[in-house]
Amino acid sequence: MFEYSPAPEAVRPDIREHYGLFVDGKFVDAEDGSTFKSVNPATEETLFTVAEAGEADVASAVAAARRAFETVWGPMSGAERGKYLFRIARLLQERSREFAVAESIDNGKPIKETRDFDVPTAAQHFFYHAGWADKLDYAGLGPDPRPLGVVGQVIPWNFPLLMLAWKIAPALACGNTTVLKPAETTPLTALMFAELCQEAELPPGVVNILPGAGATGAALVHSPVDKIAFTGSTAVGRSIAKAVAGSKKRLTLELGGKAANIVYDDAPIDQAVEGVVNGIFFNQGHVCCAGSRLLVQESIAEDVLERLKDRVATLRVGDPLDKNTDVGAINSAEQLTRIEALAETGAADGAEAWQPECELPERGFWFRPTVFTGVQQSMRIAREEIFGPVLSVLTFRTPDEAIAKANNTPYGLSAGVWTEQGSKILWTAERLRAGVVWANTFNRFDAASPFGGLKESGYGREGGRQGLEAYLNV
Amino acid sequence: MSEQSKPKRTGSKRAAAPARLRVKKTYKLYVGGKFPRSESGRSYAVTGPDGAELANAALASRKDARDAVAAARKAQRPWAGQTAYLRGQILYRAAEMLEGRAGQFAEELAEATGAEPHAALGTVEAAVDRLVHYAGWTDKVASVLGGANPVAGPYFNHTKPEPLGVVAVVAPQDDPLLGLVEAVAPVVATGNTAVVVASEDRPLPAMSFAEVLATSDLPGGVVNLLSGKVAEIAPHLASHADVNGVDLGGVGDEALAAELEAAAAGTLKVVRRPGAGGSSLDRVRRWVEYKTVWHPAGMAAGVGGGY
């Protein structure tokens, strides 16, 4: 492995010492004065303090969103709404490096990913949905689709800005106004986005950002919004679905996953190995659609594993702001504890753990890329979402067995299949119970491509024509 | 358990025996293509709007509901695996069978609901027409709801609607035939299978409709019909882990509907709330999931991440 000199990203965004809630176009402190800190997971240093929204703040944000819906955003023509969204997309592109660095600092993910994936894809989402705003009649959802009103949106910490874009862009394009709660460990880019809304002269109340933790989210779910959109864990998604039962609130959920990545014996092995590595170690494995179960055909398992370990050994783990870093910091101490606990069950259940020898920084939250072999379907590491850089390897003999094992999970978000045989790809994709199937690739995302799961991975799609349905009364 | 029958409903006022004794039908459940009685051995008396007793219906139990889900699950994959063209022909065949027996269904419906014979016949004909309508949807849904996605990269990417799986339907209470057809046809058109709780007080037209389905080349288990108490059966269906969607269209009691929706949240089922309207496409769309498949296009397409 080559020795690389440090290549630190030079741009430093202007991070304020304190951020308020963004309500009705202005930054305000929480009514009860609550605040919390956001920590850089790579250094454990406090980055800034931020107001924590309580019930009263949720009420005023929802009221502001309602006013904006009734007086400005609802009556506005689709073409004009679209122009605001185009403007936001352009501003995001202009300020992309600033957002990318901020995201790396607040989240712990490598600058390479925020720079090349998170921020550009977020901008694309606004640009794509901007174009829909005056074309909703042609979305195939009926002759006169109407907005729902005020939507409450709760997003996770793994792709803070991108998840915000997935939520806000379609909601606004469809004529709704929004109250969004970013995750408590990663509020920074959402608050910078609020500043960007000011810069774009978006009418006050159309977008409201309420940082906070679970209690803030629960208050939002119980507030008089017309719809809840949630991305996060299946456990929380289930409790939200129970909470809205019997109400008129609409709901879409993008929840957990335990994706199988199937490698057949006729796969292009080097490409497959690259895809398997990308599938599980992208974003430190903090990906709901991560390919966390490798299903490799028995006849090639030894060869694949050897090449896989060779490849994983070259991953650079460390400083998220170094442009050569492949795997950054785990997002929080809490998440690190969860990953460690689940990884321990793997060893205790009899699976064999392998990790590359790589040095980890002294401070911050880190977990080495880990490959478990000898994994049985009954083990917790094969069943539960670890949400970390941990791959469980299982084998199969026949395509039918691969399908049975792949589908043997309550989740159904994504899956991968690797083979050079076209008909086998289609045969496999047809049988996989997953909302997204990547064939000879993995972890591809696009504003034009609907994303979302089946079974206990939730319902509703984000992106594409199908994603509009989540924000329209048809 | 069964409330045994009281005086005969149809009024032969003659004291003497009729010249020919009418052969009455025993109404049973329809599960897995067969017509079993309730495993519980229970039945309940069904009356017309004037209180006259019409017949006994099987009073389905939790076990019957579970058997029906098992039958629906077993039938789902093969049903979804049939071509859309064939599913369309089978639904059309059901329309043909219903048309052929329109007179009988009109009579049964008039007895069940008190509708005028002419109006009842109109309702049956409307049910036939709805079956024909949904028969036509089977091989168009994928092109209307799915398609190619123009992603910003060298990838072939397309989205296709797929059936959700097993859908439990609480059929409308006041519209025992047309309402049931309107609820069930969009479920099975796309390859789902259904477990249906018929109108509680007016189950007989639904249970006779099972005979139409059974003679339409519809594989056993694709539609399963239960008669009984909604409040007894529906909670088991709403919480059953092998059910993927729940149509609460026929649940009149708001508190029960909320309870059922909360139970359905346990395994994150798709729920159609009472009072949900919409076009036939809206109904079809409710019971599909979208699957999006990516594949690199062109030799230069990168497959890995940014590593």
Describe the structure.
The complex is a heterodimer of chains A (474) and B (307). With 474 residues, chain A is α/β, with parallel strands linked by helices. Chain A has two domains: 18-255 and 454-473, Aldehyde Dehydrogenase, Chain A, domain 1 (3-Layer(aba) Sandwich), CATH 3.40.605.10; 260-439, Aldehyde Dehydrogenase, Chain A, domain 2 (3-Layer(aba) Sandwich), CATH 3.40.309.10. Chain A has helices at 55-73, 78-94, 96-107, 111-132, 160-173, 188-199, 214-222, 234-244, 269-281, 301-312, 333-348, 380-383, 399-406, 422-431, 464-468, and strands spanning 18-19, 21-23, 26-28, 35-40, 45-51, 146-147, 150-154, 177-181, 207-209, 227-231, 250-254, 260-263, 293-297, 352-354, 370-373, 390-396, 414-418, 436-439, 458-459, 472-473. In chain A, the strands form five sheets. A seven-stranded mixed beta sheet of chain A has the order 14-15-16-13-12-17-18, with helices on both faces. Chain A has a six-stranded mixed beta sheet with strand order 9-8-7-10-11-19, sandwiched between helices. The termini of chain A are far apart. The model of chain A has no long low-confidence stretch (mean pLDDT 97). By secondary structure, chain B is α/β, with parallel strands linked by helices. Chain B has a single domain (43-296), classed as Aldehyde Dehydrogenase, Chain A, domain 1 (3-Layer(aba) Sandwich). Helix content of chain B is 41%, strand content 17%. Chain B has ten helices and ten strands. Chain B has helices at 62-81, 84-100, 102-113, 117-137, 141-145, 178-189, 204-214, 230-239, 254-264, 280-286, and strands at residues 43-47, 53-58, 147-148, 155-163, 166-170, 193-197, 223-226, 245-247, 270-272, 288-296. In chain B, the strands form three sheets. Chain B has a five-stranded parallel beta sheet, with helices on both faces. Chain B has a three-stranded antiparallel beta sheet with strand order 3-4-10. In chain B, helix 3 crosses helix 4 (117-137), helix 6 crosses helix 10 (280-286) and helix 8 (230-239) packs parallel to helix 9. The longest helix of chain B has 21 residues, at 117-137. Chain B starts with 42 loop residues before the first strand and ends in an 11-residue tail after the last strand. At the A-B interface, helix 4, helix 8, helix 9, strand 18 and strand 19 of A face strand 4, helix 9, helix 10 and strand 10 of B. Strand 18 of chain A pairs parallel with strand 10 (288-296) of chain B, so a sheet runs across the interface.
